[in-house]
Task: structure prediction
Amino acid sequence: MKKLISCCGLDCATCDARTATIENNDELRKATAANWQKMYNVPDLSFESINCTGCREEGVKFSHCNVCEIRKCVQQKGYETCRECADMETCQIVAMVHQHVPEAIKNLKLLNQ
Result:
């Protein structure tokens, strides 16, 4: 399966929101919303909002993408991902993602190799 790496390094190909969107699967949307409500403490997250084709892919984006500081930073610098930034490993903007999902920084390091 092709890896779809987000700006921060998350693998969009393994994201339930993307899968639910691609498959138009409302049951997966509901399960994802319920999981994210607990995981991210957003009890009002609706299953209808679970739509995303991937951070760097054409198409619909999850609402958080519009306010994501990591994505904004990457776009403002004209990069595709944080991988292109010399400050990637010390950046405070992306640090929380890399702390909680160490695979994300590994994904970025493996890009273009």
Q: What stands out?
A: DSSP finds five helices and no strands in the chain. The first helix runs from residue 16 to 23. Residues 12-110 form one domain.
